[in-house]
Design brief:
Blueprint lengths: L1 H21 L1 H5 L1 E6 L7 H16 L4 E6 L7 H9 L5 E5 L22 H21 L2 E3 L3 E10 L14 E4 L3 H9 L4 E4 L4 H7 L4 E4 L1 H6 L8 E17 L8 H35 L3 E3 L6 H17 L5 H19 L9
């Protein structure tokens, strides 16, 4: 018996070594289950799945991304809960969907902060990396931000001033204190719902006004239940893929590098393509009979001052970083001053 064991031990050791050398994919394979509200069949889902396939091929099957589209995994809150308990490893979120985990991710969505996309670009060049680093400290790995464009009011009745919003059922995203506070600052009564329930809310009359970029209205079919769009930029929207850092603990550095390279390129593509898609969506809305309106210019400063005070209150309570908010505002003022030929103010540096 002892002689047999002596002969078997070298064989066992050899098999163990071979398993470690020859089968690393089996030892370290990882499935990342990722939720998104992007509808099945949409270009977004096709691009996500194509990127997932590329990652699988580049890692020889060690890293597999499985996307669950159409909001079937539930609201952002539900997705975050499933990530927390390990049922999912990531999600495709708008910024307000991650606010409970990293409040400062909503800085770009500060109401009435931006007037033009050039202002957005100026600020993003200076702050994108800071926000991504903050998100990682909060436990999520991201791969860049895809600008979703400006959110506009879409309604069943014309909206050109605050009086047109009185008594209306205006949607704000569930778990988004920024939008909620902004609406309250204008003495309105918002209705908080997850994005997955908005179309049903419009169909049933629970909502009659939403704020969204044109491409979102088309892809999510919200335009079918509205007639007017008021083209005053209310907030700038971003989307991002966030993966739980804990889900990557057993993924090799080399495979993580492949994941980052592929998904960063994809989100650079999304960032550029979304601008094109928003322009096409505006054309589609016009062709569909949507009426485009302008907010009364006299009311714009009132809206801006009121919503800015609401953001200041959130910052004073610590709900968002006062320093980051001040920095973003400073960059906007710096850009405007440079454009007008005046002295740069409040650069935030």
């Amino acid at each position: 018996m002892l002689t047999w064991l002596k002969r078997f031990i070298p064989i066992l050791c050899t098999l163990t070594i071979l398993a470690g050398v020859c089968l690393p994919g089996l030892l370290h394979a990882a499935d990342l289950k990722i939720a998104t509200v992007a509808p099945e069949g949409s270009s977004w889902m096709k691009d996500l799945r194509a990127a997932g396939l590329q990652i699988r091929e580049r890692t020889s099957g060690r890293l597999n991304l499985k996307f669950y589209g159409g909001g079937i995994q539930g609201s952002d809150r539900k997705v975050l809960r499933k990530i927390r308990i390990g049922q999912l490893q990531g999600g495709v979120f708008t910024s307000n969907g991650l606010q409970e985990r990293y409040p400062d991710i909503v800085i770009y969505g500060s109401p009435m902060l931006f007037d033009t996309i050039d202002e957005v670009d100026f600020v993003r060049k200076r702050m994108d990396k800071r926000l991504a680093a903050g998100l990682e400290q909060a436990g999520f790995v991201s791969f860049g931000f895809a600008g979703g464009g400006f959110a506009y009011l879409m309604s069943n009745k014309p909206v050109t001033g605050i009086a047109d919003l009185r008594g209306q059922k205006i949607w704000v995203p569930e778990g988004d204190p920024t939008s909620y506070a902004a609406m309250e600052s204008l003495e309105l009564s918002p209705v908080a719902l997850p994005i997955t329930d908005v179309l049903t809310g419009l169909q049933t009359g629970l909502l009659n006004i939403v704020a969204t970029p044109p491409v979102g209205a088309v892809v999510l079919q919200w335009y079918t239940k509205t007639k007017y769009i008021t083209t005053q930029p209310l907030s700038y929207t971003i989307g991002l893929l966030a993966i739980d850092k804990n889900a990557l603990r057993n993924v090799s550095a080399a495979d993580q590098a492949e994941l980052r390279e592929v998904m960063t390129k994809l989100y650079e593509h999304f960032d550029a393509q979304n601008r094109i898609d928003n322009a096409k969506a505006e054309d589609a809305l016009r062709a569909n009979g949507m009426q485009f309106l302008q907010l009364d210019p006299a009311e714009v400063p009132v809206w801006r001052e009121s919503t800015a005070r609401a953001m200041d209150k959130l910052a004073a309570k610590g709900d968002i970083s006062a320093d980051l908010l001040r920095e973003a505002r400073g960059y906007v003022q710096e850009f405007r001053a440079a454009r007008s030929g005046g002295k740069a103010a409040g650069s935030g540096q």
